[in-house]
Amino acid sequence: MGMAASQARYLALTARKTNTEYEGQQINQARTALANQSANLFNRLLDLKVPTAPKTTDFTELQYSYSDGDNESVIDSWKQLSSADPNYNYVVNHYYYSDVYTGSQKLLSNPQVTTKGEVKEDRINARIPAPTVEYETDASGNMRIKVSGSDGTKTYSNVYVPFKELPQDKKLDNAIKDIQDAKVKAGVPEPQKDDFYGYQDSTGTWHFLLKEDVQKYDPIDYTTEYKPSAVGNSPLTELKLPLEKDTETALSQIIKDLPDSNLKDYLSFNPADGLVYSGQGVYSFEMAGKTYYTCDKDLYNSMQTQHEYGKPIEGQEKLAYYGASMVRQKIEETNNALIETDGNGRFKSVKFDNDSVVYSLNTETVTDEAAYQDAMNKYNHDVAEYEKTIADINAKTSIIQQEDRTLELRLKQLDTEQNALKTEMEAVKKVIKDNVETTFKTFSD
């Protein structure tokens, strides 16, 4: 190998050796960072608090109870009186559970209010003596009927147009269908829609004349009044006076407990007069073997969306209805009391300031099961979080260890390469030295 080639080779080996040393330094720094991450994870592991299961004893306390013959009462808390009183030494909070007759309001989703149309007939001749009936024909050949006259105090003038000129309206279709059904029920042939002349008054009510009646000069004004008839399959019964005793009792309780409900427009209650009812506007119906109540206002609020014949409950608002029943309630009282203790410091009897009887106290330990269950639920949640944190730390530690092993293997490869470079550099260095010595010997000769 020539001197120039040897020197070039030596420079290349030196550069490569420097690169491997630099790469080794980078790997050592990376391993140091991984070691720091692993230490942090280990410290997190040490800082974790192992969840502790709750003990039932933590939710168990001493309880005093007594019976007055009607109810089982519990002494909830007590506080010793600061002033000296020979009759009472404690202020006691105590409670019992009792069935209390209570009025309630509910909203019915389905089924809702069904209605029944009542067809009314008003003979115009009876309402307007000698009415004038005029016939008009428009440019399209459609005949209109104008009924006018006076009953002495009021002048009437109504124009009825043929059915085909009436606007498309579901209330109109319902009203005509009710009149057709009423005619068929009365044994009269069903009139066709083209036989109807009608108009809608300011209240939204449809009025109709039939062609055959007008031709007989005896026009009858037909209207349909819709009234609530049932709640689902349960018929509605309007309450009339006198009320049955059970009904009066139930309504009295409902209006006392719900003074702002819509029933206030029909019912009232005061201790002097009791229940006051006009005899109109309140209905009863049966549902699931129980009697419930509602009123005109609630019924009409629910049935106001009835627009399509044959689908009376579609889209209705939820019906408000009322009932009265025995409801389990917690009755709490606070009284001054005289409490006696036994030789062990436990209470053995109590006498309240509003009761002459001295009650013997029962002593028992009770566990707050709801609170204990809440604590157990929290414990199970904490255990799940603890185990997940451990699993996450272990997973991250495993990844760090795998990365460290990879870096360690690469560092060993670089160490082997360093040794090989060092050996080869020594050999090239010797070749260069020999070349130098040979060259100088040649020139010295």
What's the rounded overall pLDDT mean? 88
Unreliably modeled segments: none
Report the order of strands and helices.
HEEEEHEEEHEEHEEEHEEEEHEEEEH
Total number of helical segments? 7
C-alpha termini separation: 23 Å
How does this structure look, described?
The chain has helices at 3-47, 124-127, 170-185, 211-215, 245-257, 296-303, 369-444, and strands spanning 60-67, 72-80, 90-108, 113-123, 132-137, 143-150, 155-162, 196-200, 206-210, 220-231, 234-235, 237-238, 267-270, 274-277, 282-287, 290-295, 319-341, 347-352, 358-360, 362-367. The protein has 445 residues and is of the alpha+beta class. Helix 1 (3-47) runs antiparallel to helix 7 (369-444). The two termini are 23 Å apart. The mean pLDDT is 88.
Quick recap of the structure?
The chain is of the alpha+beta class and 445 residues long. The protein is 38% helix and 34% strand.
Characteristics:
five-stranded antiparallel beta sheet, seven-stranded antiparallel beta sheet, 34% strand, 445 residues, 7 helices, flat, alpha+beta
Describe how the helices and strands are arranged:
Elements: H1 3-47, E1 60-67, E2 72-80, E3 90-108, E4 113-123, H2 124-127, E5 132-137, E6 143-150, E7 155-162, H3 170-185, E8 196-200, E9 206-210, H4 211-215, E10 220-231, E11 234-235, E12 237-238, H5 245-257, E13 267-270, E14 274-277, E15 282-287, E16 290-295, H6 296-303, E17 319-341, E18 347-352, E19 358-360, E20 362-367, H7 369-444
Helix pairs in contact: 1-7
